[in-house]
Specification:
Number of strands: 0
Number of domains: 1
Helix content: over 70%
Order of helices and strands: HHHHH
Distance between the termini: 27 Å
Number of helices: 5
Strand content: under 5%
Structural class: mainly alpha
Length: 76
């Protein structure tokens, strides 16, 4: 079931590309980065799949040129 949820990340990114609403894109990027940061600080074993999904989504944001490579390197 986890693999099924991760397959929809690409579709969500395409919808974000179509929105092109600056306020929403900035809010979403801040939310994803904050969730990754908190997840790394807490290091909760049960939340690893969620954190992996956020990291994959961040990768998709990079692929669609919504974020710069410096954001990726600062996060990791």
């Amino acid at each position: 079931m986890a693999e099924l949820r991760l397959t929809y990340i690409h579709a969500t990114e395409e919808e974000l590309q179509q929105l092109r609403h600056e306020g929403f894109a900035v809010w979403l990027l801040n939310y994803v980065l904050e969730e990754i940061r908190v997840g790394l600080e807490l290091n909760d074993y049960g939340a690893q799949l969620k954190r992996l999904a956020y990291l994959r989504f961040l990768g998709e944001l990079y692929n669609y040129e919504h974020v710069d490579s410096s954001v990726i390197f600062e996060t990791l």
